[in-house]
Amino acid sequence: MKIKAKEKKGLVEVKILLDSPMVGKEEAETRKVEVDFLTHVTAKINGKVIWEASTGPFLSKNPYFMFNVEGKKGDELVIETINDKGVVDSDKDQVK
């Protein structure tokens, strides 16, 4: 997971590149690989949820998200993902 968060005039531009093959059931059977995709992505600044997305195998491999939110330099941004098996992964960055 790669995270970039940069503040400009009171808005924080957040860019997230997630690491996931995003393989659904049908594609897994065709490619003879394991089903593996993200089901939920959450972004928090200083512990407050600021953005959420419900996802599925319809997204491309290693999905990229970008959004703007109010914030300031020094705020802590935490990104959490949940995959189809219920495994939670998280990473954090500081707003620059």
Strand residues, percent: over 45%
Overall geometric form: elongated
| Low-confidence spans | none
**Element order: H for helix, E for strand:** EEHEEEEE
Structural class: mainly beta
Cα-based radius of gyration, to the nearest Å:
15 Å
Question: Mind explaining what this structure looks like?
Answer:
With 96 residues, the chain is mostly beta strands. It has a single domain (2-94), classed as Immunoglobulins (Immunoglobulin-like), CATH 2.60.40. It has one helix at residues 25-31, and strands at residues 2-8, 11-17, 38-45, 48-54, 64-70, 76-83, 88-94. The protein has a four-stranded antiparallel beta sheet, with no helix packed on it. Strands 1-2-5 form a three-stranded antiparallel beta sheet, with no helix packed on it. The longest helix has 7 residues, at 25-31. The mean pLDDT is 94.
What topology emerges from the helices and strands here?
Elements: E1 2-8, E2 11-17, H1 25-31, E3 38-45, E4 48-54, E5 64-70, E6 76-83, E7 88-94
Antiparallel strand pairs: 1-2, 2-5, 3-4, 3-6, 6-7
Give short descriptive properties of this protein.
96 residues, mainly beta, three-stranded antiparallel sheet, 1 helix
In short:
The protein starts with a strand and ends with a strand.
